[in-house]
């Protein structure tokens, strides 16, 4: 069962459903999916993934990305490493279904989580990490408005090749609220 916390045109963000552990296990053990994540070197069992989802369910801001028309799980997005003093946080995102990649879910779910982070949680800076070989993800992040903030050189070695970890970020002043501003505007209108 999924619940619409914040909704876009293609998808909505819902609290994580722990019963999706088998699907997440399949995705996270698929090297085509996990190679772009920080989990490529991990072996995820169904039991372990169920524990992880239970933990994520009970931590602050982790969401399932759900297709709006089909009400099916397509990925996951969350806010982590929250620095409340400086109003900064990291975002983690992935689209687990190969057939759903490059269809706009990543872009829209990022806009939804940024909207939530900047306009509900009042963050000032939100950032993410990506390996420099993940060109599709980098392109998606740039389309959303993320800018490269820096990189750690040669932090990932795969098949003898060395790759950088790129940090990309966005400031609240650079984000245009697509959803929450409309909700506030409607609530603020006085009926005559």
UniProtKB/TrEMBL annotation:
It comes from the Bacteria. The keyword rRNA processing does not apply. Keywords: Transferase. InterPro entries: Acyl_CoA_acyltransferase, GNAT_dom. Residues 11-173 form the N-acetyltransferase domain. GO terms for molecular function: acyltransferase activity, transferring groups other than amino-acyl groups. This is GCN5-related N-acetyltransferase.
């Amino acid at each position: 069962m999924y619940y619409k916390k914040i909704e876009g045109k293609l998808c909505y963000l819902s609290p994580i459903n722990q019963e999706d552990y088998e699907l997440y296990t399949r995705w996270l053990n698929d090297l085509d999916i996990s190679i772009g994540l920080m989990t490529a070197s991990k072996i995820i069992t169904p039991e372990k993934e169920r524990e992880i989802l239970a933990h994520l369910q009970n931590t602050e801001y982790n969401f399932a990305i759900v297709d709006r028309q089909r009400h099916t799980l397509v990925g996951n997005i969350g806010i982590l490493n929250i620095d409340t003093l400086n109003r900064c946080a990291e975002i983690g995102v992935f689209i687990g279904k190969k057939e759903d990649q490059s269809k706009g879910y990543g872009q829209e779910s990022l806009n939804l989580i940024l909207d939530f982070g900047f306009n509900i949680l009042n963050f000032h800076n939100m950032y993410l990490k990506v390996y420099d070989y993940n060109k599709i993800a980098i392109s998606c992040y740039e389309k959303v408005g993320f800018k490269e903030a820096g990189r750690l050189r040669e932090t990932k070695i795969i098949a003898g090749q060395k790759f950088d970890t790129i940090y990309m970020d966005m400031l609240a002043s650079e984000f245009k609220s697509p959803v929450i501003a409309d909700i506030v505007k409607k609530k603020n209108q006085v009926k005559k």
